[in-house]
Design brief:
CATH topology of the largest domain: Spore Coat Polysaccharide Biosynthesis Protein SpsA, Chain A
Number of helices: 6
CATH architecture of the largest domain: Alpha-Beta Complex
Number of domains: 2
Bound molecules: guanosine-5'-diphosphate-alpha-D-mannose, magnesium ion
CATH class of the largest domain: Alpha Beta
CATH superfamily of the largest domain: Spore Coat Polysaccharide Biosynthesis Protein SpsA, Chain A
Shape: elongated
């Protein structure tokens, strides 16, 4: 049976301070723990056996998903005390997987049709199929170069800027045959991107790439996380926004409050007079006082925004306090429990 393995053991260092107290795979995206978007994608392909490969703060993740039954899947876990790298994590799940597996990075948001990728993989009789995406700036990704039939000619993880020759990058979604487990050492760390894939290409193994046409974005840094949020709330991702979307805050002073249709507010927010919210997400129990403006931003749960504060293109962690008249300028990222005093400009 085909199973899906989600690599969810990274530390999320580039998503600090957001991923300090919440592991990256479950940071809320549009108020939903991120992995739900991937679980949904996997279920749509008719796959219900999912393995989560964990290392960093595993309990916080297992507490949410448990055995998966509530979400219509069977969830199993592997755990590495010391991170074993992406390929090592796959090896650690050896006993749980069958012939062909879908393996995904735990931080990519996409509407790729996994069934179509599986079909492509089979038609090429591939050992490994790597989903690739076209991006404007390939720096910081794995560069994948292929021939006209999709056969991968070169895999280069994060090449220096002057060696970037193409624009198709590893989207962090793979179909892998069980046979490639033989190439991964039983102990210790190995990386798909830096070791296994380049070696397979070199050896003439059948490594293919599948170009995804739809939406693709990773959430690995605060700015990418914001982009992914806009992708979801605008509907561009064609991914479902879960029931939270339908919630309307219980406590609105409806006069002069303006909230556009893209914004998502948890039902337990309190919104006072004269507040304007545009293209933003507010988590559970946020309180926004009179005259504040929140635009193109994400505010996590329990934060309090005092009168006339202005927040633009910023991310505010949990239980923050944004003082009266304070201004958060584009690019601001505040970790949990930050305090911004009245009239400060960040
Ligand atoms: N279990 C486990 N163990 N998971 C891990 C480990 C590990 O040792 N190391 C990383 N992961 C998980 C991370 O949690 C993440 O979901 C995924 O593997 C990829 O690791 P990142 O640290 O996010 O890699 P990246 O963003 O620098 O690059 C990767 O993603 C790009 C696309 O977003 C690479 O796969 C690139 O080639 C790719 O272009
Ligand atoms: Mg990443």
């Amino acid at each position: 049976m085909i199973k899906a393995l989600i690599l969810a053991g990274g530390k999320g260092a580039r998503l600090r301070p957001l991923a300090l107290h919440i592991p990256k795979p479950i940071v809320p995206l549009a108020n939903i723990p991120f992995l739900f978007f991937q679980i949904d994608r996997i279920k749509r392909a008719g796959i219900t056996e999912i393995i989560l490969s964990l290392s960093y703060q595993p309990r916080k993740i297992t507490d949410i998903f448990g055995d998966g039954i509530k979400y219509g899947v069977t969830m199993r876990y592997t755990h590495e005390d010391l991170p074993r790298g992406t390929a090592g994590a796959f090896k650690a799940a050896e006993n749980l997987i069958d012939d062909t597996s879908i393996v995904m990075n735990g931080d990519v948001l996409s509407d790729t049709d996994l069934l179509e990728v599986l079909e492509y993989h089979r038609s090429r009789k591939a050992d490994a199929t790597i989903v690739v995406a076209r991006v404007m700036n390939p720096v910081g990704y794995g560069l994948v170069e292929s021939d006209s039939d999709g056969r991968v000619l070169r895999f280069t993880e994060k090449p220096p800027e002057d060696e970037v020759t193409g624009d198709t990058v590893n989207a962090g979604i793979y179909i892998l045959e069980r046979s490639i487990l033989e190439r991964i050492p039983a102990e210790g760390a190995q990386s798909f991107e830096r070791e296994l894939f380049p070696a397979m290409v070199q050896d003439g193994a059948r490594v293919y790439s599948y170009l995804t046409h739809g939406y693709w974005q990773d959430i690995g840094s605060p700015q990418k996380y914001l982009e992914a949020t806009f992708g979801v709330i605008s509907g561009r991702t064609k991914l479902p926004v879960y029931p939270q979307k339908a919630c309307t805050p219980n406590h609105w002073e409806k006069q002069q409050v303006s909230i556009d249709s893209f914004s998502i507010l948890d039902g337990k927010c309190v919104i006072k007079q004269g507040v304007a919210i545009e293209n933003s997400v507010l988590g559970e129990g946020c309180r926004v006082e009179a005259g504040a403006l929140i635009k193109d931003s994400v505010i996590w749960s329990g934060s309090r925004i005092l009168p006339n504060a202005r927040i633009e293109r910023a991310i505010v962690g949990r239980q923050c306090h944004i003082g009266e008249g304070a201004r958060l300028r584009p690019g601001t990222v505040l970790g949990d429990k930050s305090i911004v005093s009245d009239f400060s400009v960040i």
